[in-house]
Design a protein that fits this description.
Blueprint (H helix, E strand, L loop, with lengths): L1 H8 L7 H7 L13 E5 L7 E9 L2 E6 L2 E6 L5
Antiparallel strand pairs: 1-2, 2-3, 3-4
């Protein structure tokens, strides 16, 4: 995801996901803007982010899973 974000924005991200998560501020889903990073906890929940995604706008986000970019629509049931 770091490479995907850097290629799209020219911004270099911190080396670890947890450092990156802690450097930002929490916002509500309704406040997301294109390019915002989204962090997701694993199945057990908790404070530690297990993966991150880039918000694309219009309810869609991109995540890198198993070295593939996956685009997901937040507005549809999966």
């Amino acid at each position: 995801m770091q490479q995907l974000f850097e290629e799209g924005s020219g911004i270099t991200l911190p080396a670890t996901m947890e450092t990156l998560r802690q450097s930002g501020e929490e916002i509500h889903v309704e406040e997301l803007e294109r390019g915002d990073l989204m962090f997701f906890a694993g199945e057990g929940g908790g404070e530690t982010a297990e993966f991150a995604a880039i918000y694309l706008g219009e309810g869609r986000f991109a995540a890198v899973i198993d070295r593939k970019v996956i685009i997901t629509d937040m507005n549809t049931d999966q």
